# Entry
Amino acid sequence: MVTSTLRAEWAGGFTSALLTLPLSIGFGLFAFAPLGERYAGYGVIAGLYSAIIVALVALLLRANSAVVFAPRSMQAYLISMVALHLVQIQSDVSLQDPQQTLTLMFFVIFLSGIMQAALGAIGAGGLVKYIPYPVIAGFQNAAAVLLLLSQIAPMLGLGHRLEPGTMLEQLRHAQPLTLAVGILTCYLMLYAGKLSKRIPAVITGLFGGIGLYYLFLYLGYGDSVGPFIGEFRFAMPDLHYLSGFYAIVQERQWWSLMPSVLAWAASLALISSLDVLLCAKVMEGVTQQRQDHNLGLVRLGVGNLVVAAFGGISSAISLTSSQGNYNSGGRTGYSVLISSLLILAAVLFCAQLIALIPKVVVAGMLAVTAWRLFDRWTVQLVKRIAAAGPRNRPSLLLDLFVIVLVTLVAVFASLVTAVAIGMLVSVFSFLFRMSKSVIRRSIHGDVLRSRKTREPRLMQLLFEHGRRIVVFELEGSVFFGTAEKLIHQIEKAVKDGATLVIVDLKRVTDIDSTGVRFLVQANDAMVKEGRVLLLSSVEEQSRMGQFLRDTGAIAALTKARVFVDIDQALEWAEDQLILSELGDVGLGAEFPFGQLDIFAGLSTAQIEVVKGMLRRCVYAKGDTVFREGDPGQQLFVIAKGEASVRIRPAGATRDIRLVTFSPGTIFGEVALLDTEVRSATVQADEELVCYVLEHEVFQQLAGSHPDIAVTLLRNLGRELSNRLRRANRVIYQMDN
# Structure
C-alpha cells in the first residue's frame, strides 16, 4: 500500500516536472523580453528558480497538497510590464548596468511578496476578491495579447521582435519551416488530448515540435529553422541580490523611483493575489480539499520574496502542472517536492540538453497558453450584449467598456495607469449601478393583503379602496444616490391618491444618514397632508433598527408606525383604512348571530334551529383554542375578538403569524370536512367569542334539515373560493 502510494506520488511529481520545466523557461523569457536578447539567459534562470524555490518554501511552511507552484502567464506579463518601464527610464536613472536593472526588477518582486504575505496575514484574502471582474478580465486579455504578440517573432524565426514601422521588411525574412514547427506544436497542444488522455498535451506538443525541428535539421534545412534556447549558466541559488535591495533603499539616486516601485509592487501583489485565489478555487474542485486561502497567500508571498532575493520571478498556482500532478497520482506535498527536485536535477545535469530546445517550440507552447488566457467571459459578454434587451444592455456595455479600456491602457500605456483607471472606472460603475432605483417593486393594498381574514363586507371594502395603501419593497442600499428617487416615487404615489405608504426594508443591505434624512422629510410632508408613512421589517435590536433610532428616524415616525414585518404594517394600514371609511361603529361589540356570513341565505326560523345546535365558547386573551396535531372535528365561527395561527421556526426569536381571523370569519373548517388532526395551532389574541359546530351535530343537521346543511356547505365553499381567489391575485401580482 505504501509502495503504491509512493509510486503514485513519483508519477505525479515526474509529470508535473515535465509540464513545469518548458513553461517556466518560456514565462521567464517572456518576463525579460522587453530588456532584450542579452537578458534572455537571466530570464531562463529566473523562471527555473521560481519553479524550484517557491514550491520548496511553501512545503517548509507546511503546505501539503498536490498544488504545484510555478510561473504563470499573468505574473510573467506583470513583470514584463515592469521591465518595459525600466527600459523606458534607463536614460534617466543610469540603468545601463544589467545587474542594476535586474536588482531593481527583483526588488519589485521582493516588495510584492511582502505585500502578498501581509494581505494573507491580516486576513484580507477575501478583500482582494472585491476587485471588479471587468478589471481583472482587462488585465487577463492584455496579458494574452502581449504574450501572443511576443511569440510572433520566434514563431517566424525572426531574431528580433516585430516593430510596427519595419514589420513588412521583417516579414520578408520569415522562415516557413520554423513556422511549421510552431504550428505543429500549437496543434498538438490543442488537440493531442483527444488522442491520448494518459499523456498530457503539453508533453506531446513539446516533443512533437522538437521532433519536427530536428527532422528538418537532419534533412539539411538548418539555415531555415530558428535558433535554440542557447546556453545559460545555472548555478545553485544564493542570496546575493539582498545586498542590492539594501543599496536601493540606502542610496539617494534610487529614491526618486520609490513611488513607481511601490506602485508596481502593489499592482503585482493585488493582481497576482486574485489570480492565486481564483486558481485555488479551481484546484479545490479538482482535489476536493478545502484550503485556507489567507494561509495560502502567506506561503506564496513568503515564497515570492525569497525567490526574488535569489533572482527568480514571481510564482503562482500552475493549473496545468497541478492538474497533471493530481491526474497522475500526486496527492500530497511529496509529489510537489519530487517535481521541484527533478527540475533542479534536470537543470544541473541536463542544462546542455535544455539549451537545445528550439525557441520556436517554446513560442508555440506560449502561443497556445496566450490563446487559452483570453477571458472567455468577455466573449460571452459580447454575445449577451447582442441578445440583451434595452433595459440590461447599458450595464453590460459598461462592463465591456471597462474591459476594453483596461486592456488598451495596459497594452499601450502602463500597468500602474491601467490599474488606476480600471479601479476608478469600476468605482464610477458601482455608483452608476447603485444609483438605479432601489425600489424592488411597488404594490397596492387591493392586491397585497395582510394575513388577517375579515368578514366579506370588510374584504370587499379593502378591495375597492385598497389602492390608497401602497407598499414599496426596497432592495439594496438606500443612500444619497437612490434615496431621492425613492422619495420622488412616494410623492407620485401620494399625488395618485395614496394615504398610507409602507416602506419595507427587509431586503435593504445598508442605509446612510442621507437616506434617513430623505425618509424623515417625506414623513413630515405626508403628515402635513394628513397622510401616513410606515416602516416595516425593522427589528429594534437589529443594526438597521439601532441606526434608525440613533439618527432620529423612529422618533420622527413614532414607534407605533415602525413594524417588525410587512404583515403587521399592512394590518395596521388596513385597520386605518376601514376606520376612515366606516368609523368605529360596531367595533368591539359581538357580531349579531344572524348576520354571520356562514349563515347567509337561511331564514329566521332556520337560523334559530342552527343557533340551538351550536355551542358558544369564550376564550381569554392568550388561550389556546386548539393545537397542531390535536384531533378536531369542529368548525369555529368568530362573533367577537380575534384569533391567530402562529408558528415559531427553529432558531427564530419570535413567532410568525400565518393568518389572523377577525369577527364574522370562520376557521377549523378543514377538520369539519375531513375529520383529520389539526394542521396548525390557533391562539386567542384578545377575548374571543366563538360558535362551535361539531362534526356529529352537522351530521345530525344534515339528516334532519338537509336544506340547512346544503346552505351551510355552499357558504363554506364560497368562503374557501374567495380565499383562493385572493391568493391567486397576490401570486399573479408578485409574478408580474
